[in-house]
Each structure stands twice: as C-alpha cells, then as structure tokens.
Specification:
Layout: H1 12-46, H2 55-72, E1 76-79, E2 82-86, E3 92-95, H3 97-100, E4 106-110, E5 116-125, E6 130-135, E7 157-162, E8 174-183, E9 188-190, E10 202-204, E11 210-217, E12 224-228, H4 229-234, H5 236-241, E13 244-245, E14 251-254, E15 257-259, E16 268-271, H6 276-280, E17 287-291, E18 294-295, H7 302-307, E19 314-321, E20 324-331, E21 333-336
Parallel strand pairs: 5-13
Antiparallel strand pairs: 1-2, 1-4, 2-3, 3-6, 4-5, 5-6, 7-8, 7-10, 8-9, 9-12, 10-11, 11-12, 14-21, 15-16, 17-18, 17-19, 19-20
Helix pairs in contact: 1-2
Length: 337
C-alpha cells in the first residue's frame, strides 16, 4: 500500500518500485498460482494489459498518478466505519448502501486533514449497493468529478483510495494501483486491492474522475468489486430524495385476480380492489376463456400468461359470466418480483 503524505513526495525509486510490484501482483499473481507464469502472461494479454516497457514508462505513470492523487485525495473521506468521496461543492458524498444502511441516519464525515463534520444519509440502492450521504454543515466542500463507467475497457489503469481498517486513522487515504478487469452495468472488477474499511471508497481513472465505488472483496487479488458510477447517475433523483430501494428487483405484470378456494373450481375467486381486473369490470365467479388470444382451459393456465407480459401492456380478456360470453380490455399494472 502507498500512502501519499502531505508535503513530502516519495522518491522515484520507491514509487517506481511500488508500481512494479503493484503491476506484477495485480497482473500475474493469481494466474501464476493457477498455472505458472506462461498462463499469467496469457491472462494479462486477454484483458489487454501492457506491462510498462521500462523505467521511463514507470516514471511517466508515476508522474501522472502523483498529479491525480494530489488533485483528488482531499475529497476522499471516512464515513462512520467506511469510506466515501465528495462529488459536489454542497457536500454530496458517494458511498455504499451497506455503510449508509438506510436514509435519515446521522453520520460523521472525516476529511484527510482530520476535520470531522456532520452529515445525514440520503437514499440507498440496496440492489447494487449504492449509497448517498449529504454533509449538513455549510460548504463549499472540495469535490471531484463523476466520470462514466459505461465505456471502461479491460486493462485500463485505475486508482483506489480509501481508509482500510488496518490503517492508522487520522492519516490521508491509502492509494492502491491496478487495472479494470471487467465492467458491466452493475459491477466493476479491478485488481487494485481493497479491504474492510475501503467500502464506499472511490475508484478513479487516471484523470481523477470517479468511475466506481468500492463494495466488496475477498482475499484473492482479483476479486475487488465496485459499484459503477453510472448506477449513481441513473438513480440520482431517487438517491437525493432519500429513497431506500432495490433497482435490481424486477417489476412483473399484475392483473389482480386469485383462484377460488376449491382447486376444481375454474372460476375467479377474488378480484382485488383497484386492480387492473377490477377496473376492467371482471368480477368474482367469472371464468377466463382467453387471455390476449391464448385459450385458457383451467385457472392455472392464466398466471404464466400474465407473467409473460410487461407492466403497462393492454390485453384482451374473454370471459364467461353465467350464460354470457364477453370481452374486456385491461391495462396490466406492475409489482416487484
């Protein structure tokens, strides 16, 4: 781990040694354990990584990282047992939901210079583990730019900053260097190692833009999972409003009927108030003959056909009520599945 101290730059030799070790460990260690260095090199090529060509490459990378760290380190904060990063001058702090826990909690935010300020938790997307905190004391606050995660490339260099639990509190955040291994809509995997206490800490690109937020890890070098920054962008309004939700919970179509208690009775037993079925005029005792053109021979045929639809779909339903056969239209609602 490298810890950028204020007022004293590390020597080129120390920092270059760090980069070399970081690269070798992050790029090769896990693969070397599995299948030797030949397999490690093959894995490295598979993700598009290119080893530094020599000391000049290391020096150039060192200079760029030093510039980035000097720009962003002051914005990386501790958040009540975890980490976070300030992304607006009025004090919005990105973290993870398992640190924030729920909306409306009072928490302390600690800056690298030891200054502690009061904050409150806002919304949390527990599906992807995204959390938002707001400093309640008057700013402006140092902050960083939110980048984009949708166009990340495997092998791209990245930086992790945070406050691991084994590190002495009251010090600036710890820096780790690595690469993006995999990126998707709800997950980034990188080999810049994180550990307990880093949860909520930022993952930066080399320009100092936040591309992810540290979420979970284990002892393997390559298993470091981050919440993509686009997950925060896509749910920003809900997070700012203080909603606790799960964006991964799928909404399924809902008609609003239930079967009769007797399994041999093919008629509808219950129509839920204010449901699409009730609004369409369906009543208990009706028998469904067709749903959106598909024949229904027994009640159990109906639920799977409803579930294949999407909330908002309009469907035609053919019914029998006593001796009368007629059709109605219903607009399906949505419920969380």
């Amino acid at each position: 781990m490298f810890h950028p101290r204020r007022g004293r730059e590390p020597s080129t030799r120390r920092f270059s040694g760090l980069l070399a070790r970081s690269f070798l460990y992050g790029l090769f260690l896990s693969a070397a354990v599995r299948g030797g260095w030949a397999q490690a090199e093959q894995d490295a090529r598979a993700v598009g990584a290119r080893p530094p060509a020599g000391i000049e490459d290391l020096k150039a990378l060192e200079a760029r990282i030093q510039t980035t760290v000097s720009k962003v380190a002051a914005c990386v904060v501790g958040v009540s047992g975890g980490s976070g990063v300030v992304v607006s001058d009025d004090g919005h702090v990105l973290t993870v939901a398992h640190v924030s826990e729920r909306a409306g909690r009072s928490v302390a935010v600690t800056f690298p210079d030891g200054r502690r300020v009061r904050a409150v938790t806002l919304g949390n997307d527990h599906g992807v583990d995204a959390g938002l905190v707001k400093i309640v004391e008057e700013g402006p606050w140092p902050h960083v730019e939110m980048g984009r995660s949708g166009d990340l490339e495997p092998g791209q260099w990245c930086l992790t900053l945070g406050y691991p639990v084994s590190f002495e509190r009251g010090k600036p955040p710890v820096l780790r260097i690595g690469r993006v291994l995999r990126s998707g809509p709800t997950i980034i995997m990188a080999d810049s190692k994180i550990m307990g206490g880093d949860s909520g800490g930022p993952l930066f690109d080399l320009d100092g833009r936040v591309i992810g937020i540290g979420s979970r890890c284990d002892d393997r070098v390559i298993l470091n999972v981050h919440v993509p920054i686009d997950c925060f962008r896509n749910q920003w309004e809900r997070l700012v409003k203080g909603e606790d939700f799960n964006s991964l919970r799928r909404a399924v179509a809902f008609l609003g009927v239930a079967p009769a208690e007797d399994p041999e009775d093919q008629r509808i037993g219950t129509v839920f108030p204010n449901s699409p079925a009730a609004e369409a005029g369906i009543k208990p005792g009706d028998t469904v003959l067709r749903f959106d053109g598909q024949p229904i021979s027994r009640y159990d045929d109906l639920p799977p056909l409803v579930q294949r639809k999407s909330p908002g779909n309009r469907v035609e339903i053919e019914l029998r009520r006593g001796d009368e056969v007629f059709k109605v239209e219903a607009e399906l609602a949505g419920v969380s599945g």
